[in-house]
Please model this.
Amino acid sequence: MCRWFAYVSADEECLLEDVLIDPAHSLAKQVHEHYLPKLLSHNPNELTTEHEIASRNRLFNVDGFGMVWYTPSREDFGEGEGQRPALYKTAQPPLHDTNFRSICANTATKACFAHIRAATATPIVAVNNHPFVFGRHTFMHNGVVESFIKISRDVCKLMDDDCYANVMGSTDSEHFAALYMTFLTKGKGKASWEKQYPTTEMRDALWKTTEAVVKLQKAIVGEKCEANSLNVATTDGCSLVAMRFRNHKVEQPPSLYWSTTAGVTMNRKYPDHADGRENPKAHKSPEEHGSHVIIASEPSTYKKNEWNLIEKNNVMMVDAKGKVEIEEIRSPAELAVLNSSAKGAL
Model:
């Protein structure tokens, strides 16, 4: 599976180099190295089996990289209000890319999404890399929409014309994103991509997209369809919503963690360092750091206790002021019958 990292703050910029490159376990290094504390199996009293961890977390993520950082540049030149996403993608691993290193060394932002890819059945080309951008909205995914080839034409039929036209690649993830945007905006087209929506509406659109996909799988593939893994995140540059979901009774989705303090540890302006070593560049106290939230496939700092595991089938909402809410997803009856006779799916 892939790996991803998200940062959002109302008032504290992060230097991309600090959060994506410098830590010993930064996203850019999760191509082949993994750190998965607190990851539990369906039995809370037992550690996840090695097989289950490996099956959804320990593939080599060598099939490309993408990132979005939000910038107020267009607003500064009188076009639009608020931050807008700048997008960079490459088909090679990030640490081999000097352009990526240069951007990160010289770019600070209050919101960023970054993603390294482990391709499944679609071509290894930059256009298939996450994140995916729709106006001011950004979306990324770790996991798989099962039997996507069989349901893809019907998924496209549910999209509005502008969302369909914005799909540039062939991945299940980008199609899921386009369907999410259709539901979020109620099919009102490209102009509605510039609006911001409450986190509750973003949550509801994510779940409506999940429901629609599972219903199509049930109708077209039937009980032979395997469970989906949907670790997804979406942001407008101010608010952020993330979901960790797998419609299976016992199997876990890929790992997903969150923190409200790791940004201080990684920021070179403040004492400490992501790897626990001395930081001679620090010149501010931790109390001066603004509120922020990080959601990531794996922790990036040495402090295990500053990371929390998002439980299976939970959604996390972060509003524009940094308020965090986590809710359990209640699977409706129409999802519960999917694959009911195979491998314990919900």
